[in-house]
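Researcher: Please translate sequence to structure tokens.
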Amino acid sequence: MTPTYDGPLAGIPTDEESVRKLDRTHVFHSWSAQALIDPLPIATASGSRFTDYDGKSYLDFSSQLVNVNIGYQHPKLVKAIADYAQQMTTIQPAFANGTAIFTRDGGAARQFQFDVEVGMVGVNVP
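Model: Translation complete:
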């Protein structure tokens, strides 16, 4: 199952060989000896599964290691990203805005602040 893109995304590679070449040229994989790794190119992902460019589906037992413990392409996250992109896609470091952390109503930001205050999350502040 190889994705295809139209419009402004038409230049995104949709074949494994191109993805591998671009990855080796431009991506620094943390915690890895770069010359020794061979990352698996992923064509699509949904929920707890991802699919390679040959159409083989995998159950991702390691997704919780980074930031996809809610699953790939979670509809609420995809909607939140799309909604926010309609409002503002980037902001320069000297500016501030009221919706920069996670949610429009600030609920996640308040929860994060609480977690920091009670010691559940460690934050290094200069």
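Researcher: Any highlights?
Model: The chain has three helices and three strands.
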